[in-house]
Amino acid sequence: MPELPEVEVVRRGLERWVTGRRVGAVEVLHPRAVRRHLAGGPDFAARLHGIRLGTAMRRGKYLWVPLDDMTFSLLGHLGMSGQLLVQPQDAPDEKHLRIRIVFDDALGTELRFVDQRTFGGLSLHENTPEGLPDTIAHIARDPLDPAFDDAVFHAALRLRRTTVKRALLDQTLISGVGNIYADESLWRSRLHYERPTATLTRPATTLLLGHVRDVMNEALAQGGTSFDSLYVNVNGESGYFDRSLDAYGQEGEPCHRCGTPIRRRPWMNRSSYYCPHCQRPPRAQPVP
DNA sequence: AGTTGAGCCTGTTCGC
DNA sequence: TGCGAACAGGCTCAAC
């Protein structure tokens, strides 16, 4: 599952391998992969044909490539299992190849969107005046964005009547934090996932954001080295997760701080992993 | 109007 | 052995 650091690696790969190239034929092999392009697959392919690609951008887990005059962008999301690959044109099709973008040049490579579960996809959108595809204008900046405002984030947490993990996954508050990094940063912060955000102090928020950034930067440092191969690297297996996880997927394993077995609890149709000793559940708070 | 939780999708793993 | 259930989860949106 590509997390923000992996998506950043893909962005760098796109920057390296497709910037400035002019699109030739576009082949949509699965309609679901362009479902966010409301005008449909044929329109997607026709509009893209002949367009020159700009420099790839990223916010959270969204990627986009501005087109020619910057009024439109090619937007992508990898979902759970998506990959963007730059492949030799004669390489055999991947089993789950969904979209093929051929270039009108002599470099001999093409861009492929491969996605087993088709949670991800590509689409074309008008840009906002800020240069952001309009459909993601509501997505908050991610914590690695220099313009992310910690004070504004904290103020929003205080106003919300929700829990801290839910807030970490709320794209309108902060983007790019998935289930894995949420559990990891909460473990590092010794915060229980059901802690009401309204009870977080400013130092607690600062600590939490620091750990979110640490986890992401550590993964980026480990996964960010392979992007200058021919492949735009995105297999979702950075190797980071197997070696470095403290909480996520560690049910029954001793907590790396105190030795108490890590617990797994069903949460929002998925799981939350936490240390029952280090991350104490919040006391019931009277609602004012 | 803010908050909640179901649902999308398919390959893999697990238990009966 | 075979089959169905559970699971993985980023994001949206209907419903409360």
Characterization of this structure:
This protein has two domains: about 5-135, MutM-like, N-terminal (N-terminal domain of MutM-like DNA repair proteins, Alpha-Beta Barrel), CATH 3.20.190; about 150-275, Helicase, Ruva Protein, domain 3 (Orthogonal Bundle). About 25% of the residues lie in helices and about 20% in strands. It has helices at about 5-15, 40-50, 150-160, 165-170, 180-190, 200-225, 240-245; strands spanning about 25-30, 55-60, 60-65, 70-75, 80-90, 95-105, 110-115, 120-125, 265, 270-275. The strands form three sheets. The chain has a four-stranded antiparallel β-sheet with strand order 1-6-7-5, covered by helices on one side. Helix 1 (about 5-15) packs across helix 6 and helix 3 packs across helix 6. Residues about 225-240 have low confidence and may be disordered. The chain binds a DNA duplex (16 and 16 nucleotides) through loops.
Secondary-structure map:
Blueprint: H1 4-17, E1 23-28, H2 41-48, E2 57-59, E3 62-67, E4 72-77, E5 82-88, E6 97-103, E7 109-115, E8 121-126, H3 150-159, H4 164-168, H5 179-189, H6 202-223, H7 240-244, E9 263-267, E10 270-274
Helix pairs in contact: 1-6, 3-6, 5-6
The protein binds a DNA duplex (16 and 16 nucleotides) through residues 1, 32, 60-61, 77-81, 96, 116-120, 160-162, 166, 169, 171, 178-180, 268-271.
